[in-house]
Amino acid sequence: MTKNIAVIGAGPGGYVAAIRGAQLGGNIYLIEDREVGGTCLNRGCIPTKTYFRNAEIMRTLRKTEEFGIEVDNFSLDGKALQERKTKVVEQLVKGIEQLISSYKNIEFIPGRAKIKDDKTILVNLKDGETREIAVDNIIIATGSEPTMTETKGVDLEGVITSDDLLEMEEIPETLIVVGGGVIGLEFASIYQELGSQVILLPSRILKDIDKEISRRLPMFFKKQGMKVYADIRAKEIIKEGDKLRVIAKYKKKDKEIEVVGDKVLIASGRGPVTKGLNLDNIGVEYDRKGIKVDKDFETTVEGIYAIGDVNDLGIQLAHVASAQGVYVMEKIMGLTPDINLDIYPNCVFTLPEVAFVGLTEGELKEKGIDYKVSKFLFAANGKALSLGEGEGFIKVFASEDDNKVLGVTILGPHANDLIHEGALAIANDMDVSSITRTIHAHPTLSEAFMEAVHGLEDKAIHIAPPRKRRR
């Protein structure tokens, strides 16, 4: 018997789940009250990465003398920047809409969904009518939205979220960024290159990352020209004419600072979108972290699932939401999913890029795992030097007992592309020799990964044998 499945939300979790369900023969109702593609495509990953490309170009233009090229009087057109971002987003949205429409067993319903019970969905349609849909299963994929801190003054004009910043045509002369997570660091790094004087106020730099990255990244930001105050919390924001003054206090010492800017970006994180779903009345448990789910992403009500940013697992990554969507659909349709959901790459689009997968050194020590580590510097990689990006490193961890790759951390050029060799190795329980026996092309950045892995067995050619650290 064909299953009727409602998917609430057409972001990277929802629309991927819908397509996988359709492929398996399900009758899918995909419900979305905004744009297809969700936050990631419309207000997050994709818009930010189009800006990231502009930031890369601006940085290159400032370094052209290094390459023997003279470029004078270049400038950034904020309106053109917006137009390019919009064009990229619209092209991708249109492509997804066409993809969804190509599946005859997916019905896309524009409207706001409310769960009446575990077998019934009510949809408030755009025309004001309400439609009732009978289903066998429900997948909640409503995503997340920016959250504001409790800092006094966050409601003032000029205090903005990442959504607001992406809609601005002007580049702020001075941008104060409150927050040291992925969103805050990406926007800080991007806007510094786009022409803002960025003042970064992070309470910490990238939670749960390798400590060497959190120590070194602020140094790179300062070289960009950014003003960075580490381990600090914003206490109050004050409006002074057309400027904003932020009073912040250091976490570990009794000292305050005051900084002044044109805009203040609150990048304190994102919270799950659960409002209007009627969760309280149907028995689905949730809290401020998200909807409670089990190992199969099923909620406290049988047959109702929650994937992506809206569940309480705290993994706010588009690619993880997509993987969870595939997993849940395959479970609903009676398959045994063959995907490793425990291993996923984390990518940070700062300048330089940061990526990591698997365990960090701190986690290895905490778990009491005997390990070895090797690090290769991009300064010794021919491709990196030819690109003018010889800063940073690749660090690889492996177990002492069976030589399995356990973790990879990268800081440097194209880190977010290079990380997938590490993700592939860890997700498939590969050992070091699986990589060392593989020839890597020259000259490429991938050679840096190869050299780091070779270093685990004292076989690295272009560096001295790395110092090994054990528990």
Envelope shape: globular
**Main β-sheet, in a few words?**
7 strands, mixed
- What radius of gyration results from the CA coordinates? 24 Å
Number of strands: 24
Beta strand %? 25-35%
Which residue ranges are poorly predicted, with pLDDT under 50 across at least 5 consecutive positions?
Answer: none
Estimated structural class: alpha/beta
Beginning-to-end CA distance, first to last residue: 55 Å
Helix content range: 25-40%
Mean pLDDT: 95
Number of helices: 14
Widest sheet: strand ordering:
5-4-3-2-1-6-19
Structural notes for this entry:
It is built from 14 helices and 24 strands. With 471 residues, the protein is of the alpha/beta class. A 7-stranded mixed beta sheet has the order 5-4-3-2-1-6-19. A 5-stranded parallel beta sheet has the order 8-15-9-10-11. Strands 20-21-24-23-22 form a 5-stranded antiparallel beta sheet. A hairpin with a 4-residue loop joins strand 4 and strand 5. Helix 3 packs antiparallel against helix 4 (78-101). The mean pLDDT is 95.
Annotate the secondary structure layout.
Elements: E1 4-8, H1 14-23, E2 27-32, H2 38-43, H3 45-62, H4 78-101, E3 106-117, E4 120-125, E5 130-134, E6 137-140, E7 144-146, E8 159-160, H5 162-166, E9 174-178, H6 182-194, E10 197-201, H7 211-224, E11 227-228, E12 232-240, E13 243-250, E14 256-261, E15 263-266, E16 270-272, H8 279-282, E17 286-287, E18 290-291, E19 304-306, H9 318-332, E20 346-348, E21 353-358, H10 361-367, E22 371-377, H11 382-387, E23 393-399, E24 405-412, H12 415-427, H13 432-436, H14 446-455
Parallel strand pairs: 1-2, 1-6, 2-3, 6-19, 8-15, 9-10, 9-15, 10-11
Antiparallel strand pairs: 3-4, 4-5, 7-16, 12-13, 13-14, 17-18, 20-21, 21-24, 22-23, 23-24
Helix pairs in contact: 1-9, 3-4, 3-6
